[in-house]
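G.,

No rush on this.
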Amino acid sequence: QVQLVESGGGLVQAGGSLRLSCTASVRAFSTFTMGWFRQAPGKEREFVAAITWNGGNRNYADSVKDRFTISRDNAKNTVYLQMDSLKPEDTADYYCAADARPRRVPSVAAYDYVYWGQGTQVTVSS
């Protein structure tokens, strides 16, 4: 069974930075496409960023492009989300997700991701 554990959330002022981490308990991590999604109170879950198995391709939501960076370290079974220039509208629960298929282009659709973490809360104060 695949377990994804997120960490790194917290409270930060607008303009600040946070780095989220997600560690997977599976040997095949290096073949997975990994993604980050978020859900704000009263809103639907939305795509944030995704990265292919080898880090060769990445996708970002328009709302976070040029502010967030997704990366991975396959030796550590970990994917990261570096969040800079945070805004109050970035406040949400952030979820790590794994797509077991080694895609050439990472999917932005939540239904393509079969494994999910429990989420970590990010709050950005104005």
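When you get to it, here's the other one too:
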Amino acid sequence: QAQLVESGGGLVQAGGSLRLSCAASGGTFSTHNMAMGWFRQAPGKEREFVATINWSGSSTDYADSVKGRFTISRNNAKSTMYLQMDSLKPEDTAVYYCAASRGTYDSTAEYTYDYWGQGTQVTVSS
């Protein structure tokens, strides 16, 4: 069964860094020709867009709140996407979800994504 699996979450102090990974698994499922993205959901809030990358990695987009601190990248040979998070703030605390779209263009809209991971918790202490 096609699925996405996130890893790399954890507890970190403000100002620290974490690197999230999102790997495709399940038979022949591959994300190499899919746009992908990261979203997050903080307690009591709706899920929000964080970052997106097109199928080749040549185009990316970020939420204003993470620009200059987070970097999205991918390795298509490994069907894996990454989110490097630097200068973390307590307000970055959330469950982070990765997603993949059958389309090839990067997208900030949740409805354009067809596959979702289960999420990984990121907690930033002050």
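The two ends are 40 Å apart (CA to CA). The chain has a mean pLDDT of 95.

Enjoy the weekend,
O.
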